[in-house]
Amino acid sequence: MNDAAAIVGQRRALRALSLIVGALVMTAFAGCATTGPNGQPPNPKDPYESFNRGMFAFNDKLDTYALKPVAEAYEKVLPSPIRTGVHNFFGNISDVWSTANQLLQGKFDNTARMTMRVMSNTIIGLGGLLDPATEMGLERQSEDLGQTLGYWGVPPGPYLVLPLFGPSDVRDAVALPGDQYVGVPLLLTAANDRPGAAVLGVIDARANLLSASQIMDEIALDRYTFLRDAYITRRRSLVYDGNPPEEPDTSDDEPQGAPNPGAPASAPAPAVAPSAPAPANAPSAPAPASAATSIEEAAQAPVPPSAPSAPTPGGVTPAPLPASAPPLPVPLPGPAPVPPPPASAPH
Q1: What is the C-alpha separation between 17 and 23, in angstroms, rounded?
Q2: CA–CA distance, 97 with 194 (Å, rounded to integer)
Q3: How far is Cα 168 from Cα 170, in angstroms, rounded to an integer?
Q4: Minimal CA–CA distance to 303: which of 275, 267, 329?
Q5: What share of the chain is helix, strand, coil (3-state, %, to 5)?
Q6: Strand locations in the chain, DSSP E?
Q7: Tens-digit pLDDT profile for residues 289-307
Q8: Among 127, 232, 311, 334, which residue is least crowded by beta carbons within 10 Å?
Q9: CA gyration radius, the chain
Q10: Which of 58, 63, 81 is closest to 202 using CA atoms?
């Protein structure tokens, strides 16, 4: 009779947890925060940043004054072999749910390996206190209901920070009651042991994160942003088994090298750069051996496309030639050159 009442109470607690999570999700979607901090536009992945930052501050205070001190005392009081056994025990329980999610995703090879792991640690490892499966090469491949939903195409939705549970998203928040129910509450038969086992599991999980939280405090300028980006990246990698596809580029910037419609087109570079005029007091260069050859070469020199054309007598300025036009001879200023008389001509 007492066990039946305890089971009913446990179901009511899980139902209340589902209602709380659902209320938080609805509150977030109701638009409790439509702008980012300091009035900036919201992050597309975190449109409810103001709400999330408030919840993050609440969880941070709870961790600072309750969870972290208890986890530090737990690590100092209990010797390492006992803490390792407790961690292996809860890990073996989570492996059962991981095996079920591997099956739900159709990963039959992983399902078989995880089944062998659970059986080895349960039978040979004294109910999960030891981990002989890892030494046998049966590595843990964790899966949860949120990953299963993502595997079948359910989008993650906006980032969401839950009270007590911390970083999440809408998809993982919906899957959270199932992940919490299939664990200690379901696998432990003694109802009176479930609350204590659940608290011990939280302390064990927090004790294993002490070094990680210390590193984050040292390197992160904004702990909220650092934790949010790390969570989104990690969950995306887990859903795609470590090989996520590239995300589409949502930037509205123009590609580099694209012409600006409002800017004038740049003029092509001249074929021959004009030479700089010589200074007035510079000595004149010696004349070439053949004056006729020099004049012919000068006449054949191409005209730079950007050079302006001289106006015609009628007052109409012709259009400049395109860059691809053949070069035209340019008459030199001064009198036309007279060719030298032939050698046979009389003097």
Answers
A1: 10
A2: 17
A3: 7
A4: 329
A5: 50, 5, 45
A6: 159-162, 166-169
A7: 444 444 444 444 554 454 4
A8: 334
A9: 40
A10: 63
